[in-house]
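Quick one:
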Amino acid sequence: MRADFTTPTRCFRFLTVVAGSAVLGERLYDARFETAALVLLAVTALGWLVLGYAVPAVVMLGSAKPGLAVAADGTRLLWVVATESISTAAAQVADHPEVPTGLAARAAVATWAIGVPYWIIMGATAITVLAGSRLLWLDPAQYP
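Output:
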């Protein structure tokens, strides 16, 4: 696992944990397992904070630099997918009474905005559009 994480051509794959956890959390929330979904979303957000910075740092600071043809294999799209998955999940739980007022709405808007500049560069349009559509569900009073 350590070898995969420190290899620039493999490390982006770890972001599937973030995206998959967000999707599972959304499904649990839909199925009314709200507490489990909220815990999973918190773990997902923490995972995104750690991996969202650590994975690009591994690529930039690592000594082994793969050639462009090897490096451009599509796994870099997982960074945007993971970022936007936080937005979709946060928007879904924004009005839950156990979530501090405005916290999830702000997180949803912020992570969507972070991911938007990269969808053009990386081509992750579908998840960005999904995240943006979920923002339309938010109550504007929850964020400034």
